[in-house]
From TrEMBL:
<keyword id="KW-0133">Cell shape</keyword>
<keyword id="KW-1133">Transmembrane helix</keyword>
<dbReference type="GO" id="GO:0030288">
    <property type="term" value="C:outer membrane-bounded periplasmic space"/>
</dbReference>
<dbReference type="InterPro" id="IPR050396">
    <property type="entry name" value="Glycosyltr_51/Transpeptidase"/>
</dbReference>
<dbReference type="GO" id="GO:0071555">
    <property type="term" value="P:cell wall organization"/>
</dbReference>
<keyword id="KW-0511">Multifunctional enzyme</keyword>
<comment type="similarity">
    <text>In the N-terminal section; belongs to the glycosyltransferase 51 family.</text>
</comment>
<keyword id="KW-0645">Protease</keyword>
<dbReference type="GO" id="GO:0009252">
    <property type="term" value="P:peptidoglycan biosynthetic process"/>
</dbReference>
<dbReference type="GO" id="GO:0009002">
    <property type="term" value="F:serine-type D-Ala-D-Ala carboxypeptidase activity"/>
</dbReference>
<dbReference type="InterPro" id="IPR001264">
    <property type="entry name" value="Glyco_trans_51"/>
</dbReference>
<dbReference type="InterPro" id="IPR023346">
    <property type="entry name" value="Lysozyme-like_dom_sf"/>
</dbReference>
<keyword id="KW-0812">Transmembrane</keyword>
<keyword id="KW-0961">Cell wall biogenesis/degradation</keyword>
<dbReference type="InterPro" id="IPR036950">
    <property type="entry name" value="PBP_transglycosylase"/>
</dbReference>
<protein>
    <submittedName>
        <fullName>Membrane carboxypeptidase (Penicillin-binding protein)</fullName>
    </submittedName>
</protein>
<dbReference type="Pfam" id="PF00905">
    <property type="entry name" value="Transpeptidase"/>
</dbReference>
């Protein structure tokens, strides 16, 4: 060793002697005074244990569970699974004590003798061969480091040099003494084994056992235990996966130390030599899933959940990553898997057109599934990081006619109300907008719509809903006198109009947009499913929720600042709309799926009564279908989320097919209920409650491509926002079309 190197080592030896003396002083004279250093630190030496050290080990991974208890994914910053003492093999504890702190069971948290011995050993070797800190001191250091809230605190936790370094060591010594007075040795050792870093992203002995050997900490063998105990000093340099020779050398040092201390009873020197000659046998395991990109099922649901936890419940991402929470979600993995397959049956993975299936539970708001023909979060072209199930990008067409119908029923306009619209077109008396001929002057600037194909000139509300007549519903809006009733009804049922690319409800009302009933407004698929769920729940509206409970690390409900559980159940509003209105509409809408003239017959599932509604937006830029039962509600929207594109069909085609392909196998072994009866008064005199007949071919009966709804007329485009015609923009005058 060169003179310079020896001088450096001797300098370190001198520093360690000073530290050792300071530690003795810290033990014997906590009320020291005199020097500036002692005076400055005497208060901190007497401090009670900080909360970081009275709490248990950092909790580790948070688990996200589906409704059936299966694991969806984890959230973690450090891969750590905390285990109890009896879940750690005794040989692991012995190996760690022998190599890190052989006097652990004899000292009271400080080991001055060990510190001096390590200093002498290191000087003799010319390098660091032994550490001077006890396991208790290391636990203090690691805990303060991991729980540091700022860069300054992290720096202070590892400071080595000068007065600050000595100050840190003194504080660690005092806290180590306090820990030993507070907790038994086995708990200190267990906490250390749960917190220390073992390399390869594994924090704690359980994660390390899984990462290096694919076993639990309780099942580690002697060679495995020696290997992991040796990693604590230098996890990168001695990594048995990337540096197997170094790993074997370090493992053998631990085995030799255990033998020398008499802790390998029954092992002869020859047996030890044979054991040390064997290379390290690793069986690397994969790291646990982390975040929504790794979700086993429902990646888009997971992303919606994460946003709900952090933004709605106020759980910080730091707590989510490090709090060891158990998050019980509403996700139904069977329906999620079937929804995933259903969208792929119709649209390939990553196709320009997105098929978006979203399911909720009426009466609770529980979100059951969110499927898209995309993978969540990755970088490939078939991937998507936006939760399309919640984003409002295109209109939902004639699905909005239900809001007008509900407003009319509530206003005393019964379902037997007959309106004549001869010639399959109707010009409003109330609402301004483009005319059917494109000449605003010829219609005095009033809004005009047409139907696709030939409709009866005269329909009542039941027939108009089942056939999805544009002209009837614009005329019905005329009778209401304002769009305010349908807009407020949509809000009460669960529709939102507050996303950046949506027009606020107040603006829609102020501009008196007659096109509202035709579904021109950008629509969230989740909102659409949830609004129709209000019909299925007899008028009870519930906000969508993805979680049923969040438990803390101890299995108790996670509480907020007020001490109350953060999850208290769904946020539901009974009678958000009158139950007779909801029940009447649900019964009417059964005809859209079950009757041959309905536009949604492709969604029919024999043996189940389904209320449904189709919708297609202006220029076929989107198509939608919503189907509900008292137990389930689900929407499907097909659209291009990046640009306007003709989807090549109507709501009764791709969307109804996707709905059927998801729900038919799901319902195969599940009973569903009938809707509550329609209200005779709302049906009107002489109009009995609908008696739908199931299509003879069930789900296989194709929906008519013409005449069963309202195909967008080519001569009636929706004006762009802000054009010279002066009509309200944001797509406000686009038509909505039924099938």
């Amino acid at each position: 060793m060169s003179a310079v190197s020896r001088a450096r080592v001797l300098g370190k030896l001198a520093a360690m002697i000073v530290v050792a003396g300071a530690l003795v002083a810290g033990m014997l004279f906590p009320l020291v005074g005199g020097t500036g250093l002692a005076a400055r630190n005497s208060a901190s030496l007497l401090d009670a244990l900080p909360v970081e050290l009275t709490d248990a080990t950092p909790a580790g991974n948070s688990r996200v569970l589906a409704a059936d208890g299966s694991l969806i994914t984890n959230f973690y910053a450090h891969n750590r699974t905390v285990v109890a003492s009896d879940q750690i093999a005794d040989v692991v504890k012995q190996a760690l004590v022998d190599i890190e702190d052989s006097r652990f069971y004899d000292h009271n948290g400080l080991d001055v003798q060990g510190t001096l011995r390590a200093a002498v050993t290191n000087v003799a070797a010319g390098s660091v061969q032994e550490g001077g800190s006890t396991i208790t001191q290391q636990l203090v250091k690691q805990t303060l480091l991991e729980t540091a809230d700022s860069a300054e605190e992290r720096t202070a936790a590892v400071e080595q040099d000068g007065v600050e370094g000595l100050s840190r060591k003194l504080r660690e010594a005092r806290l180590a003494l306090a820990l030993e007075e507070t907790y038994p040795k086995d708990e200190i050792l267990t906490r250390y084994l749960n917190i220390v870093y073992f390399g390869q992203g594994a924090y704690g002995i359980q994660a390390a056992a899984q990462r290096y050997f694919s076993v639990n900490a309780a099942d580690l063998t002697l060679p495995q235990a020696a290997m992991l105990a040796g990693l604590v000093q230098s996890p990168t340099n001695d990594d048995p996966i990337t540096n197997p020779e170094n790993g074997q050398t370090r493992r053998n040092q631990v085995l030799q130390r255990m033998f020398d201390l008499g802790h390998l009873e029954g092992t002869t020197p020859e047996q030890l030599a044979a054991l040390m000659a064997e290379p390290v046998q690793v069986a690397p395991g994969v790291s646990p899933a982390n975040g929504c990109i790794d979700a086993a099922v429902g990646g888009f649901f997971c992303a919606f959940l994460q946003q709900y936890l952090t933004q709605t419940l106020g759980i910080t991402q730091e707590l989510l990553d490090n709090g060891g929470l158990t998050i019980q979600t509403t996700l139904n993995p069977q329906l999620q898997t079937l929804g995933d397959q259903a969208v792929l049956n119709t649209l390939p993975m990553g196709a320009e057109l997105a098929g978006i299936f979203t399911a909720v539970q009426p009466g609770t708001g529980a979100v059951l599934a969110m499927s898209v023909n995309r993978q969540f979060g990755c970088a490939d072209p078939q991937c998507e990081s936006v939760v399309l199930n919640t984003v409002a990008s295109q209109g939902a067409g004639s699905t909005y006619k239900v809001f007008t119908a509900a407003a009319a029923l509530e206003a005393g306009i019964p379902a037997n109300t007959v309106i004549s619209t001869p010639g399959n077109q109707y010009t409003s008396r109330i609402y301004n907008g483009p005319s059917c001929g494109g000449d605003r002057e010829t219609s005095n600037g009033k809004y005009c719509v047409q139907n696709a194909g030939n409709y009866p000139d005269t329909l009542d509300m039941v027939g108009a809903l089942v056939r999805s007549s544009n002209t009837y519903f614009l005329a019905l809006e005329d009778r209401l006198g304002s769009v305010e009733g349908p807009v407020r009804m949509a809000e009460r049922m669960g529709m939102g109009f507050d996303q950046p690319n949506q027009t606020p409800a107040d603006q829609i009302i102020a501009e008196n947009r007659g096109s509202f009933t035709l579904g021109a407004e950008a629509t969230s698929p989740l909102d659409l499913a949830n609004a129709y769920a209000t019909l299925a729940a007899q008028g009870t509206q519930c906000d969508p929720v993805p979680v049923t409970q969040v438990l803390d690390r101890n299995g108790q409900p996670l509480t907020g600042d007020d001490g109350q559980p953060l999850v208290t159940g769904g946020n539901c509003t009974p009678e958000a709309i009158p139950a007779p209105v909801a029940n009447t509409l649900a019964n009417i809408l059964v005809g859209d799926v079950a009757n041959p003239e309905g536009t949604g017959t492709r969604a029919a599932v024999p043996g189940h009564v389904i209320a449904g509604k189709t919708g297609t937006s202006q220029s076929n830029f989107s198509a939608a279908f919503v189907g509900v039962m008292p137990e389930y509600a689900a929407s499907v929207m097909v659209l291009n989320p990046k640009r306007n594109q003709n989807v090549g069909g109507f709501g009764g085609n791709k969307p109804a097919t996707i709905w059927h392909d998801a729900m038919a196998p799901f319902l195969a072994d599940k009973p569903t209920s009938a809707f509550a009866p329609a209200d005779p008064g709302l049906m009107g005199a002489g109009r009995p409650a609908p008696q739908p007949t199931q299509p003879t071919q069930g789900a296989e009966q194709p929906a008519p491509d013409q005449g069963a709804g309202d195909q967008p007329p080519a001569e009636q485009p929706a004006p762009d926002p802000g054009t010279a015609n002066g009509w309200p923009g944001n797509g406000g005058w686009g038509g909505g079309f039924g099938n």
